Amino acid sequence: MHGSGNLIQTLLRHGLVDLYRLWVFPLVIGSGKRLFADGAVPAGLRLVDSKVSSTGVVMATYEPAGEIVTGSFALE
After folding, report:
1. Is 46 inside a domain boundary?
2. Residue ranges making up the domain that contains 51
3. pLDDT for res 63
4. Is residue 35 part of a domain?
């Protein structure tokens, strides 16, 4: 969803997003509007694809995976 933070919030609230394509840029420039704002419904996501550009941009594709499954960062 390019350019409309309000529309994406409405779609998320009604469960109308079936694919997330998130690009993470390797820089910090300050504050901005949050994609997953306060009031967003918690949901699990499953990584279905990822790539890294030559400049370090991570391009990840996720799809909804139902309820949140919690885990641990402990080494096994």
Report:
1. yes
2. 18-27+41-68
3. 94
4. no
Q: In this predicted structure, what is the pLDDT of residue 29?
A: 81
Nearest residue to 43 via CA among 68, 22, 18: 68
Per the structure, the count of domains in the chain is 1
pLDDT tens-place string over residues 23-51? 988 888 877 767 676 777 778 889 999 99
List, for residues 8-23, the tens digit of each pLDDT value. Answer: 778 878 888 899 898 9
Question: 49 to each of 25, 31, 52, 60, 75, how far by Cα in Å?
Answer: 17, 28, 11, 6, 25
- Domain contains 33: no
Q: Residue 53: what residue type?
A: S
- Provide the phi-psi class of 19: left if phi over 0, else alpha when psi is between -120 and 50, else beta: beta
- How buried is residue 11: exposed, middle or buried, by Cβ count under 10 Å (0-12/13-18/19+)? middle
